[in-house]
Amino acid sequence: MTAPSACFLLAAAGLSAAASALHLACIAGGPDWYRALGAGEQMARMAASGSWYPAMVTAAISTVLMIWAAYALAGAGVLPRLPWMRAILCAITAVYVARGLAFVPMMLLMPGRSLVFWGWSSAICMGIGIVHVLGVRQAWASL
After folding, report:
1. How many domains is the chain built from?
2. Using an 8 Å Cβ cutoff, are 72 and 135 in contact?
3. Is 2 within the bounds of a domain?
């Protein structure tokens, strides 16, 4: 049963699940989707050439995001309790917030993507991170 104090973790789960679905849509959509969603020209070219690499990387990211959604749902009381729930929810939160803050370092480490991509993706990750912070804080006693 969902705890009344779990609305932010429910939202966090929905956001992670939506991000996971968007990654799967990128695989299905092919090179144009990789380009549109900012994966970079190299990934789009590999997808266009039939390489397995873009789909495998994107599927792995999608899987991780779905696991994160499951942890948020477990924290909200929708799914059964999962191992190390507090620690893992804190780690997930930290990854989202760190990715949101890592705007400039990510641009330097992964060139070839537009400034618009880095701005939007960082803002989205920070937003999801804030929802996680609020959710973990809200449900802390029950985690």
Report:
1. 1
2. yes
3. no
**Residue 1 within any structural domain of the chain:** no
Check: CB of residue 48 under 8 Å from CB of residue 34.
no
* CA distance linking residue 41 with residue 136, whole number of Å: 37
Written as six digits, the tokens of 84 are 């190390």
Digit-coded pLDDT (tens) for 35-87: 988 888 899 999 999 999 999 999 999 999 999 999 999 999 999 999 999 99
Is 12 contained in some domain?
A: yes
Structure tokens at 86: 């507090």
Cα–Cα distance between 89 and 25 in angstroms, integer?
26
Amino acid at 30: G
DSSP 8-state secondary structure symbol assigned to residue 106: H
Structure tokens that stand for 60 in this block: 């792995």
Which residue range(s) make up the domain with 109?
A: 7-142
**Residue entry with tokens 């618009």:** 116
Q: Does pTM surpass 0.90?
A: yes
Contact 59, 27 (CB under 8 A): yes
